[in-house]
Amino acid sequence: MDKPRPCGCKGCRTCLICEKDYGIQKQIPLDMENGMYIYCPFCNKAYPGWNIEDYNSHPNHSGDAIEYPGIYIDLNFLSDDEEKVLINGVDSMPWDLSQSGRRKQNFGPKCNFKKKKLRLGDFQGFPRFSEFVQKKFSDHRVLKNFQTIEQCSLEYTPERGASIDPHIDDCWIWGERIVTVNLISDSVLTMTYNDKPKRYNLDCVSKYPSVLTETGDINNSGHSYTVKPLMNSDKHPVVRIPMPKKSLLVMFGAARYDWEHQILRDDVKERRVCLAYREFTPPYLVEGKEDVAKQILLKAQEFWDYKRVEM
């Protein structure tokens, strides 16, 4: 099962289509022994619970809150008209099959995370219809000086059983701020503490300064983030992060490096599309670092019209 299947899945990744065709039983254990919490974007804290709609009870939360640093949410990032522009734009372009029941459109360089090799590939910049999104980033202090080098459209549908398994975005090339713009329907990011400290190139994190402080301010101290491996005595709950449609989510610091994030199949109630944005790690922003990095940064400033390119 290591080879790609017609649905786009391979290895341990599955969707409803290949599970039915190949008799695969999909089960990802979710340890909830240490409690379940829902992050409130108004309080910037997490409260006991599971149903993501409970954050709407603000400020009348139940139970004792816990601190959960490294999350920034703008619930009203997009207007209705802006959301329509993006949906029409992504749906005017071809989709590629991806794993776990998703479809994708990827605009960015080619990266080999194991060998730490970077190349331009066929990256020519980004679709013009999405240019305004990157311009809106400058309105948020947590995204000061954010330079997009990858933009990826991801589609989730309940018909395919779409999901994404627990993971941390690679830390060799993708920078500290992980950005998601959510479209069409509400969704949830489920966070579990990472028990694989030697994966994801997490050892790179200590080699460059953090972009942000714990509170989301620009870090001027030059200090690096210290990844906190899971110890046997540690007890961490499951934390659920709301991603309403038209919202902006930024993960950084602890949420970025110490916790794996996933989207559960059961949380995909209807079609959902997100735009995911990545930046370089600081070493690749240093002048003279690598010619290929310079080429990528230059291409990342270009925006093109899809119909004109197709002609």
TrEMBL record:
Keywords from the UniProt entry: Iron, Metal-binding, Oxidoreductase
Domain of life: Eukaryota
GO molecular function, one term: oxidoreductase activity
An individual GO BP term: demethylation
Gene3D superfamilies (UniProt xref): Alpha-ketoglutarate-dependent dioxygenase AlkB-like (2.60.120.590)
Named cofactor requirement(s): Fe(2+)
InterPro entries: AlkB-like_sf (IPR037151), ALKBH4 (IPR032857), Oxoglu/Fe-dep_dioxygenase_dom (IPR005123)
Domain (Fe2OG dioxygenase): residue spans on this chain: 148-281
Family: Belongs to the iron/ascorbate-dependent oxidoreductase family.
Protein name (Swiss-Prot/TrEMBL): Fe2OG dioxygenase domain-containing protein
Gene source species: Brassicogethes aeneus (Rape pollen beetle)
Lineage: Eukaryota, Metazoa, Ecdysozoa, Arthropoda, Hexapoda
